[in-house]
Amino acid sequence: MKKLLLIDANSIIHRSFHAIPPFTAPDGRPSGAIYGIASILLKLWREDRPDYAVALFDRPEPTFREQKYAEYKAQRPPAPNELIAQIVEAHALFAAFGIPTFEAPGYEADDLIATFAERFRREEGVKVVILTGDRDTLQLVEDGHVFVQTFIKGVSDTMIYDEASVKEKFGVTPGQMVDYKALVGDASDNIKGVPGIGPKTAVELLQKFGSLDKILDTAAHGEDAMLEKKITPHRAAAEQSRDLVVLERHVPIVIPPIGDLAPHADIKDKHIEEYFITMGFATLLKRIYESDAGVSGAKQASGKEKRGNGQGSGMADGQKALF
């Protein structure tokens, strides 16, 4: 089957920003997160290049979730300027790889991912793989159609979730992940869930009753004293949490035919090379041509990556371990 790669751009940018030393481009722009994403893309292109690819971004405007619940993600500190600048710059990196980018005011990247997955999950001969740094999209996993590739450590080691691995890891099916998070909450998004219901109890309840609706109905009818005591007072919180967790699969955007989503097939494409030269990614340029007899003078002249202090360092400490 051909592979459509849906890239959770903001998630991967944030992960790279915290995992990679603070490199700067020759013109002084911060570039560590861009370097990290570029390294990920090169690895993918060399090991299992996607036939189609799309990068999905968050927007700075308030989302529909914040309109429903003002405290949604309210605990998160503002993003530093160095990170914001690289979120903007990442569009140019994806363009160099021939990867189209999409975003929509009022929606998160995960909602666009869900929308693309919904559109193409039944495309004949195509499987959808979501590349992300978090687990919010596990609710979309569907064997034979939609898979989630996420990071184990740093930005190099990944694993792919299918239905069986989701069940093995969390004790519930992908279709139950929304109800699971509605019960346990999600501290990273400031979603409260049901007080006193942790992962173990949530799994036991969902394995016994099957769904949040069945749990709520059982509690409401007094059929289970424990549920009535624990769940009934927090029914509204559970339903609100579920409403916030579930991804929107029908974001109003124009989705091109899948044939228009083919990226550059060759990592030696001139657009990639020129972009790496502009950003001063000498190590990545060398990696592109490492199978060749040598690296041309043009590549050698591209300069070394610079650390945040402005001192050329070639390969930063720990870089080999990350990549």
Reading the helices and strands in chain order gives: EHHEHHEHEEEHHHHHHHHHH
Using DSSP, what is the number of strands?
6
CATH fold-level topology of the largest domain: Rossmann fold
Radius of gyration: 22 Å
**What is the CATH class of the largest domain?**
Alpha Beta
Short description:
It contains 15 helices and six strands. By secondary structure, it is of the alpha/beta class.
Feature tags:
323 residues; Rossmann fold; six-stranded mixed beta sheet; 15 helices; disordered C terminus
Report what the structure shows.
A 6-stranded mixed beta sheet has the order 3-2-1-4-5-6. It has 15 helices and 6 strands. It is α/β, with parallel strands linked by helices and 323 residues long. The protein has 2 domains: 2-166 and 248-261, 5'-nuclease (Rossmann fold), CATH 3.40.50.1010; 174-245, DNA polymerase, domain 1 (Orthogonal Bundle). A hairpin with a 3-residue loop joins strand 5 and strand 6. The two termini are 28 Å apart.
How is this fold's topology laid out?
Blueprint: E1 2-8, H1 9-19, H2 32-48, E2 52-56, H3 64-68, H4 81-96, E3 101-102, H5 109-120, E4 126-132, E5 146-153, E6 157-161, H6 163-170, H7 177-184, H8 199-209, H9 212-220, H10 225-230, H11 235-245, H12 270-279, H13 282-288, H14 297-300, H15 319-322
Parallel strand pairs: 1-2, 1-4, 2-3, 4-5
Antiparallel strand pairs: 5-6
Helix pairs in contact: 1-2, 1-4, 2-4, 4-12, 7-8, 7-11
